[in-house]
Each structure stands twice: as structure tokens, then as C-alpha cells.
Amino acid sequence: MATNAKHVIDFDHHSPVLRDNNTEVFKSLMYNEHGCPMGWSEHHGGFWAIWGYEALYAAVQDWQTFSSGHSAECPKGVPSTNYIDPLIPIDYDGQIQQDFRKVVLNWFNPGHARGMQARIQQICDELVNSFIERGEAELSYEMFTAMPAIVTLEMLGWDSSRWREWVDWVHAMIHDGVLDPEGSMEAVMNLYGSINKEISDRRDHLGDDLFSDMMRTPVNDRLLTDDELRNFALLVLLGGMDTTAGVTGNSLLLIDKDPALRQQLIDNVDQMPKIIEEFLRIAGPGGGLYRRVTADTEFFGEQLKEGEKVLMMFWAASRDPKAFPDPEKIDIFREENRHMAFGLGPHRCLGSHHARMMLSTMMTAIFTRFADFQVQWDGVERFEDCGSVYAVRHLPVTFTPGTRLV
Ligand code: HEM
After folding, report:
1. What pLDDT, in 10s, does the model give residues 198-238?
2. Is the pLDDT of residue 405 over 60?
3. Where are the transmembrane segments (predicted)?
4. 355 CA: nearest ligand 1 atom
5. For all residues of the chain together, what is the average pLDDT?
6. pLDDT tens digits along 257-278
7. Which residue's alpha carbon is nearest to atom 27 within ligand 1?
């Protein structure tokens, strides 16, 4: 799509350059000579990227101009994916999006997350027990990928022993969309089929779980259709499974390279619920979240045209020097930390309270039970494409063997 952008950038969020050097890439975007908070990239058919905190803050509130809606004519993603049904509520705007959110708010408020604290702790203890005596572990699948997957499935009321199967489909859908579109679409079909089976299994015996509430709660005086239920549950899986794992893995890699930071964490482990905010800011999983411009408009000095796509760079905005002094420094005592890891505005993350609880519980376990872990860098594997979520697939470590908790 032609554009008269003032600030044109050579930026591709699916490129390994971003995956391997995101600090440098963000700096080159952020410290441009005109001080632009956004720019136009010609990659993938063309899109705007917004990285400045103030501009992104304004864009996420203005859902009338920056729509989350997609359609067959204007498919989601940069590049466009094969059109799949809109996820609920993330691909909707306005009142209906808020109405959909209300269906699940009882499950995603701070009180509900606090109520799950004991169970989250128990899952964490059991996971660590399973490898603590060995003195080595593959922390992704043995801990930080397993934990949010189990919690999400338990909230939905689904069989959590199948977490690995669900996670593999979610990973393929999120990470392989550009590199292996066919494999990714096959995973989507597996997800669709398995969710459909959960719907039919539950139809006549609803229980006390998130998915049953989705099935029994009317929206505008009608129950959700099977397609809507599937698209809602799928988003809970996508939001729940990959993101918390991403920030945990990213954080551990940073800590392994910084002995002073590791010691600070050991010394302040009781402050973990506050400390994790700094890791959400600096090591957040990013997220290729898009909007579509609904009408020609001027925005922060640029002329946006109807139909253009916009990449919301929450992870870059959380490192904007105008909002965070010394943004590249990991300061676990940072006072003002209004990071954007969970987004902002009408689509602000529903799972943030649970994510914080899981992240804090896992980090506390690590820095009390095997704080001397050493990353085995030869075995570290990132997901190749970080355009959707910046995360670690495999993270092997060694440590002084410990004892199981009874
Ligand atoms: C560290 C972990 C997490 C991060 C960084 C994160 C990040 C985000 C972000 C940035 C958004 C805003 C999307 C937008 O503006 O388009 C979002 C929305 C959402 N997240 Fe999360 N998320 C996390 C964990 C979770 C968990 C654990 C769940 C559920 C179990 C979840 C469920 C959702 C849902 C359902 C939405 C859509 C809300 C709406 O559209 O109204 N997230 N998340």
C-alpha cells in the first residue's frame, strides 16, 4: 500500500536480527534523528510500527481509529495470515468486546488469582521436586512452559495431563505462522477439533470452571454459539500458555549473564512480587499485536490511511527513555514502572494477575531452591520467529542438587 510516510524504517519483526539483538534494534528505532515514535516499514506488504510510549498509549485507547477487527478482506497479521475466525475478545472492538470480557471477569480478577495461589505453589513445588535431585533440568518443559499450561487447562476445567499436546499446537500456531504456514494451520485445525470436542463433552454437564461459565453465561441475552466458544477458549489458550513462559525464560537468560543481579535476587527473594515488574518490563514476551487504521488520520505527525496495518510494539515502549530513566538497566528496585507488557486500554491483558502470580511463584522457587543454576548455553534454543512472542523453547541448566519438598 502506498504511503507518504515521513519516517521510513528497515524493520522486520519476524527477522532473526530482532530475535538476537532486540536491544540494538529498539535503540535504533527509538533514537532516530527526528525523534519519531513510529515509522513505516515496507516489509510484508507494508505496516506502521509504533514504539514510542506516548504514541502507543494514545493509539491503544483510540480503538475507533486503531481497530482490532479483522475480516477476510483485511486478514489479521503482518504478513496477513490465512484468515481464521476472530478470536474473542481480542479481535473485536467497542461494546461487544467489553460484553465478551464480562463473561470471564470473575475468573480473571486479582481475587481469583489470589485464590489460586496455593494451587499455583503446589504445581510449582511438584515440578521442581521432579528434577531437583538430578542437579540438571530442561527448565522450559520441566518448569516454566508446564506451569502456565497446567494452570490454564485447570482453569478451563480440561484434562491438564494433556498439557504437552496442547502446548505443542499453541507453539506451532504462534511461532510457525510465517516460517511454516501449513504446519501452523494444521495446528490450528487440531486446536479447533480438540476444543470442539470439549464443547460437546461438556454440553450436558456443566461444572464449576471457566469453560462452563463461558457456556452458560448469556451475552446480550443469548448464549455463545459453538464457534464463539471455540474462538474464546482458543484465545485463553494462546494468551495463557506462551506468554508467562516467555518472560520467565527471557529473564533467566539475562540473570545468568549477570552475577550481581543474581545475588540481588537471592538477597531480595521476599520482594519477588515487586521485582517481577522489572522483568516484565525488560524481558516481556513482546507480542505481534496489530491494529487496522479505520479512517485517514494524522497521528504524531504521520498521515495514516484507512486499511493500513499497525504493529503495537508494547515491548519497545517499555524501554522508552522518555518513560523509563536508564531503560536498558535492569533495576529491580525501580520505583516508577508503568510498563506496557500487558498492553493498555480496552484490551488490557485479562490474565495479568494470574501471570504475575505464576511468574513470582516460579522465580521465588528458583532463587530459594536452585539459585546457583548455570545455563547450558549450547542447548539453549529460542523460537526462531519472535514476531509474535519472544520466548525460549529449550533452556537446559545445571545446579547443585537439592532435596524434594514433602
Ligand atoms: C506475562 C504474561 C502475559 C503477557 C505479557 C500478556 C500480554 C498481553 C497483551 C499485551 C495483551 C493486549 C493485547 C492487545 O492490546 O491487542 C493481552 C491480552 C489478553 N491476554 Fe494476556 N498476557 C499474559 C498472560 C496471559 C494469561 C496467563 C492469560 C490467560 C490465562 C492471558 C489472556 C489474555 C486475553 C484473554 C487477552 C485479550 C483481552 C481483550 O482482548 O480484551 N494473558 N495479553
Report:
1. 999 999 999 999 999 999 999 999 999 999 999 999 999 99
2. yes
3. none
4. 27
5. 95
6. 999 999 999 999 999 999 999 9
7. 240
Tell which atom from ligand 1 comes closest to the C-alpha of 348. Answer: 12
**SS3 category, 78:** coil
Check pLDDT > 70 for residue 83.
Answer: no
Q: Where are the domains of the chain?
A: 8-398
Question: Which residues surround ligand 1 with Cβ inside 6 Å?
Answer: 68, 89-90, 101, 148, 152, 235-236, 239-240, 243-244, 247, 284-285, 287, 289, 314, 341-343, 347, 349-351, 354-355
Grid cell for residue 23: 536491544
CA distances from 10 to 14, 26, 38, 312 (A): 12, 12, 12, 16
pLDDT, mean of residues 384-390? 93
Residue 6 CA, chain-centre distance (Å), reads 31
| Residue 313 phi, psi dihedral angles, 5° rounding | -95, 70
Buried b (16+ CB within 10 A) or exposed e, 162-198: ebeebbebbbbbbbbbbeeeeebbebbebbbebbeeb
Write down the pLDDT at residue 394. 98
CATH topology of domain 8-398: Cytochrome p450 (1.10.630)
pLDDT value, residue 1: 54
